[in-house]
Design a protein that fits this description.
heterodimer; A: mainly beta; seven-stranded mixed sheet; four-stranded antiparallel sheet; 0% helix; B: seven-stranded mixed sheet; 11 strands; 51% strand
Chain lengths: 107, 119
């Protein structure tokens, strides 16, 4: 199985800060990576697909980059409504696997 | 609007069975691959199963293989997950999700249904 190592596991930042989350795959997954946002008690929401493509309707402050084994998810200017847990997800191989999540809080 | 709604969760004893359903609306269900994802209390996301648009290709996580069966009824816009020989570690919120066309992003999710396996 492909292991997805996401870091940090949690972070605290101020409104307006740039926030970066990384995800490392245990083997080359090309660009077969998605990013999801999950707010407490809610289902995940797709933000970024194929490593760098913004899902329709998602604010442009969210972005993704990377290929191969190293990926980055960025919130360019953190907003109060961005408080959530973020997950990366690889679909290069079955079983699909997710990172362990990054909980983002406001400082 | 595009919507998925799960049902069928509940409390079941270890070794018992449960059948989850996912009702789809607002889109052409038969055109989309579907998946089940689960989340144990306080934990991350775990992929459970995946079924092609026709139902001809089906995959399972090793943790549920041989115990869970996924199926779909395209005429009824419905996805199901039959769960047998349930264990305490199957306790989770179960989500059905749609795989987008042209990419493998899970672009529509239901609100989830809770399964608790306990004596």
């Amino acid at each position: 199985d492909i292991q997805m190592t996401q870091s940090p596991s949690s972070l605290s930042a101020s409104v307006g800060d740039r926030v970066t989350i990384t995800c490392q795959a245990s083997q080359d997954i090309r660009n077969y990576l998605n990013w999801y946002q999950q707010k407490p008690g809610k289902a995940p929401k797709l933000l970024i697909y194929d490593a760098s493509n913004l899902e329709t309707g998602v604010p442009s402050r969210f972005s993704g980059s990377g290929s191969g084994t190293d990926f980055t998810f960025t919130i360019s200017s953190l907003q109060p409504e961005d408080i959530a847990t973020y997950y990366c997800h690889q679909y290069h191989n079955l079983p699909w696997t997710f990172g362990q999540g990054t909980k983002v809080e406001i400082k | 609007q595009v919507q998925l709604v799960e049902s069928g969760g509940g409390l079941v004893k270890p070794g018992g069975s449960l059948r989850l359903s996912c009702a789809a609306s607002g889109f052409s269900f038969s055109d989309y691959y579907m998946s089940w994802i689960r989340q144990a209390p306080g934990k991350g996301l775990e992929w459970v199963s995946y079924i092609s648009s026709s139902g001809g290709s089906i995959y399972y996580a090793d943790s549920v293989k041989g115990r869970f069966t996924v199926s779909r009824d395209n005429a009824k816009n419905s996805l199901s997950l039959q769960m047998n020989s349930l264990r305490a570690e199957d306790t989770a919120v179960y989500y059905c999700a749609r795989r987008g066309t042209g990419s493998y992003g899970l672009d529509v999710w239901g609100p989830g249904t809770t399964v608790t396996v306990s004596s």
